[in-house]
Amino acid sequence: MSDRILNDQEFQLPVSRIFIAASLFVALLLDWLPWQGIWLALRPDFVALVLLYWCTHKPYHVGISIAWTVGILADVADASLFGQHALAYSVLAFSGIVLHRRILMFNLRQQTLQIFPLLLLAYAVYAAVHWQLRGNISWEYFIGSVVSALLWAPVTILLQTLRRPRAASDQL
Amino acid sequence: MEQNQPLNFFNRGPSPAVRLVFFTLFSLLLLFVDVRYRYLESIRSGLSVLVYPLQRLVTAPSKLWHEVDDFFSSHNSLIRDNAELHHQHTLDVAQLLQLEALKAENQHLRNLLMVQQRADYPMQLAEIMYVERDIFNRKILLDKGAQAKVLAGQVVMDDSGIVGQVTRVYPWMSEVTLITDKDHAVPVQVLRNGLRAVVFGSGDTGELALRYMPISSDIQNGDVLVTSGIDGTYPVGLPVAKVIHVERDPAYPFARILCAPIAGVDKRRQLLILSGLLKLPERPEVTEEIATNKPKNSRRGGR
After folding, report:
1. Architecture of B119-279 per CATH?
2. Which of B181, B239, B248 is nearest to B221 (CA)?
3. pLDDT digits (tens, 9 = 90+) for A140-169
4. What ipTM is given for this predicted complex?
5. Out of A36, A80, A90, closest to residue B23 by CB
6. What residue spans of chain B are helical by DSSP H?
7. Which of A67, A149, B209, B217 has the greatest CB tally within 10 Å of its CB?
8. CA distance A25 to A23
């Protein structure tokens, strides 16, 4: 399954800016769902995942500036400090852009292991800022990075499927 | 020498590293300004106008679920609730009559003693939009904001006790910091013996800490703490917490006392905002002599 998706990458539609914006928008909405209790600890960061997807697959379309802007919106909605999410997402986008050739070499299962440290880094940046300014840290926050990494494969498959030309099955 | 330079066919603007440094510095600057000063509140409320409809949209499904759930709540449970509420109502009315009499008497006595009158607080019902969005700062967002004349600093409670304080007001929302928030302080009094203390949040939603109480202080398990009304932020006599654990270790100067908050944020969807803050006369200037003696005290009360 994963090999097939990676192999037919050349048949994908040229990605439109509207599609990128829409995917980020949906990810933001998913993050803003009213998560509570145990689900809050398990909440994956969809925005980070989608940002990382675009930064690795289209590093010249989505860069650090877009990651930063999305981060500011997340800060307003989460009532976190201004720049907290923005800083974490900027670091994530940078690492995604720098390592994009290396990450795309692997298949999906190996990619999950490759992007986990990147997500962990972004989570650590967010937690470190909070720790420096507010003085407390809660370790269950990092569970979210594991769940996010596990969701990397489904998110990638979903976005790749949406980017494939629709009529392909008819033209066989 | 030129061979070492990477080929640059297309001009893509500054390199990722440069951009990262720029945005990191910018974020750190914003963080610093946000923590130290209050300049960014207007930008935040401006952006929240943009974000607010989307947040409403996202919470709509769960809200709809609650409404459907309410709609199909069974006939029997409604009848039972109704009977229970009627019963409670009769009891309450009787107590309320007594309260009125006591209030009048109290006011009369206070008049005689020339003490300032205690005020009644108008209340406003607000619904919770979000609970504990962020695992780090467990704040709640209410659906009343500046449009409903909510002010920062107002007290938020449910029917059993104090929940927190409004700390930020958006046009259609307000943000409540819970009393269990890290280092959030509430001036309290032990109901049993009138002992004054300050209760601090611990960062954990089920726990509060009573700090700086000497080992000899008269506090027992099960003591109820109510607001003392000192400081003018919280009205007098609202329940805050119950003592659940007292540890007196002679090795430490202070006893270790843990309390559980009485109000439950997770049990209800509606909360009350108390409007009409008590106006206390300005605190007289502390002279230099006292200020140098106790430099920590003046800083701690600032929350």
Report:
1. Beta Barrel (2.40)
2. B248
3. 888 889 999 999 999 999 998 888 776 555
4. 0.79
5. A90
6. 16-36, 41-71, 75-113, 288-293, 295-300
7. A67
8. 5
pLDDT at B177 over 80: yes
Mean pLDDT of B67-92: 86
The pLDDT, as a whole number, for residue B67 is 80
Long-range contacts of B290-299 (CB under 8 A, 24+ apart): none
Q: Is 0.80 surpassed by the pTM of this model?
A: no
Where do we find the tokens 């990638």? Answer: A156
Chain A residues with CB under 8 Å of B182 CB are 134-136
Q: List, in order, residues 6 or more apart from A31 with CB less than 8 Å away.
A: A43, A45, A46, A47, A74, A77
Cβ-proximal residues to B254 (8 Å cutoff; 6+ apart), any chain: B211, B212, B213, B214, B215
Contact B234, B188 (CB under 8 A): no
Model pLDDT for residues B227-237, shown as the tens digit of each residue: 888 877 888 88
Question: Which CATH fold would you assign to the domain A2-164?
Answer: Arp2/3 complex 21 kDa subunit ARPC3 (1.10.1760)
Chain A contact set for B175 (CB, 8 A): 79
Confidence of residue B118 (pLDDT cuts 50, 70, 90): low
Q: How far is A145 from chain B (nearest CA, A)?
A: 13
**pLDDT of A1:** 47
Three-state secondary structure call for residue B140: strand
pLDDT band at B280 (very low <50, low <70, confident <90, very high): low
Pair B202, B185: CB distance under 8 Å: no
| Residue boundaries of the structural domains of chain B | 14-71, 119-279
Helix (H, G, I), strand (E, B) or coil at B239: strand
Q: What is the mean pLDDT of residues B46-63?
A: 82
Distance between A123 CA and the closest CA of chain B, angstroms: 12
